[in-house]
Amino acid sequence: MKTKLWLAGMAVGLGLALGTVPAAEKKTEKKPKAWSAKMRELEAALGDVLFDISSDARFDDKKNFKKIEADAVRFAKLAHSVGDETSTAPDHDQGLGMVGSDFAQEADQAVKTLKAGHRAYARVILGTMTNYCVACHTRTNTGPSFNALKIDSRIEKLPALAKGSTLAAIREFDRALAEFERIVGDGTKMEGDVYDYERALRYGLSIAVRVKRDPDVALRLVEAAMKNAKAPYYLKAQAADWKKSIAEWKAEKPAAGGDAEKLLAEGARLVEKARSVQKFPADRSADIYYLRASGVVHEVLGLGPKGETAAKALYLAGLSYDVLYDYGVRDFGEFYYRACIRTTPHTNLARECYRRYEESVYFGYTGSGGTYIPSDVRARLNALELLSVPEPDPKASPAELR
Ligand code: HEC
Question: Which of 155, 185, 206 is the last residue of a domain?
Answer without folding.
Answer: 155
